[in-house]
Design a protein that fits this description.
Length: 428
């Protein structure tokens, strides 16, 4: 398995891991028949990735962008969002950077942005790969008697009649069938193309159910290309999940354990349009909870950094303070358990790929894994929002704001606003 790099913080190892993880993502896109641009910092560390041939603009700005670039207008919609246009640049010999700089100078700064690749974190995955749990992780009764730590046993705040959408890698039905707390979880099958991010979505569904055991949970298969997706494809999937012509009900909570830093730290245009067109008119009836990222940085990680989203960082194993790998800053609204989380995982041999590699493989035999990351703090908060709604009523946004206010009144020694227990749903 791989060793931790955040205790103490080893920036060199963090950056080495980032390079390896970015290479894996590039390879996954090449195998799909596509190429991505890697935006690197002065140290050669990947900061963001995006399509070299797609430009995102608001539809209201599209005519002047097409005219400035000398392009013919599209003959059909390029996004399910009416307010978003995806401009095809495949016939333009200029690089995307050249085109973006030209538009910034000739029209308006930020009028166009890349179609970014969204992924599990800025370092391109969780801060550490999954490991088999020890006897201490599963308790005295072993895996057969296992119940996730902190499991919510309050029948009044169990998330019943609430729907949480987990937007991730998809669902492994055989893993769901092995664990009682996952009973009734549904979703799209996880494809093999997710690579070594296997089970990420199912594990996250298990964390949601730890804190909202009676909530309906649906897992979407979106992060399917080596654990990544273009942002324009992501919002198309989100639009479908909110479209009552396609689904019976909209989710109360969207749990997204991914995101990206962006070119020049500009907000994700696709999510700006998604909020304006879909979420804002609902007046808090659906809330997006998003991971803050895993590289111990204050750099903004989108969409968690949007003011209308709930950005979630991770606490240490004791639930005391921010753990070293978690991103932080005023844009991170709350911190929750995200270190040494034990939940459902498929049996079999896992081969480690991220440095530094100690034991090259691990044999998972108990249907469980121990994993760390803001990826797993995020579904705790999503579950608590659903749990509080079943007790207090109100909208998802109201429940989220009440929990954030409670967390601000429950800071750790480092001042991090904390949610640490299923009881927080009742106390908030």
């Amino acid at each position: 398995m791989t060793a931790t790099w955040w205790e103490p913080l080893d920036e060199g190892l963090r950056d080495e891991r980032s390079r390896v993880q970015a290479d894996l993502v590039e390879q996954a896109w090449r195998e799909r028949g596509d190429e991505v641009v890697v935006d690197r910092d002065a140290n050669g560390t990947a900061v963001s990735m995006y399509s070299p041939n797609r430009l995102l603009v608001r539809t209201e700005d599209a005519p002047q962008v097409y005219d400035a670039l000398g392009l013919g207008r599209p003959g059909r919609p390029t996004s399910r969002l009416a307010g978003l246009t995806v401009v095809d640049l495949s016939d333009d010999p200029r690089s995307l950077d050249e085109i973006l700089d030209f538009l910034d100078g000739s029209l308006r700064v930020g009028i166009g942005t890349p179609d970014h690749v969204l992924h599990v974190s800025k370092t391109w995955c969780a801060p550490i790969e999954p490991a088999p749990p020890t006897g201490g992780d599963t308790g005295a009764g072993g895996s057969a008697a296992f119940v996730p730590a902190g499991f919510n046993t309050d029948p009044d705040s169990d998330g019943r009649d609430r729907l949480v959408a987990v937007v991730d890698t998809g669902l492994l039905d055989d893993v769901v069938a092995e664990h009682g707390w996952l009973a009734g979880v549904t979703g799209e099958p996880e494809p093999a193309t997710v690579g070594h991010y296997r089970d990420h979505g199912t594990f996250i569904a298990g964390v949601v159910r730890t804190y909202a055991p009676q909530a309906a949970v649906e897992v979407q298969a979106v992060l399917t290309v080596g654990g990544t997706v273009y942002e324009s494809d992501m919002v198309n999937g989100l639009f479908d999940s909110m479209n009552l012509e396609l689904v019976e009900r909209r989710p109360d909570v969207i749990s997204f354990s991914g995101g990206t830093c962006t070119r020049r730290d500009r907000p994700l245009k696709s999510f700006e349009v998604f909020y304006d067109e879909v979420l804002k008119p609902l007046e808090g009836a659906t809330v997006l909870v998003a991971a803050a990222g895993n590289d111990g940085s204050a750099d903004r990680f989108w969409p968690a950094a949007f003011r209308w989203a709930v950005g979630v960082g991770a606490l240490d194993a004791q639930g005391s303070s921010r753990v070293g790998f978690s991103n932080f800053g005023p844009w991170v609204e709350v911190f929750a358990h995200g270190t040494d989380i034990v939940n459902a995982y498929p049996n079999g041999i896992y081969t480690y790929t991220e440095p530094p590699i100690g034991t090259p493989t691990a044999d998972f035999t108990d249907g469980l894994a121990v994993w760390s990351g803001t990826s797993f703090a995020t579904p705790m908060v999503a579950g608590l929002i659903a749990a509080r709604m079943s007790l207090r009523g109100g909208t998802p946004r109201e429940s989220a704001e009440a929990l954030i206010q409670f967390a601000q009144g429950n800071p750790g020694p480092d001042g991090s606003p904390r949610l640490t227990s299923a009881v927080d749903a009742r106390q908030s």
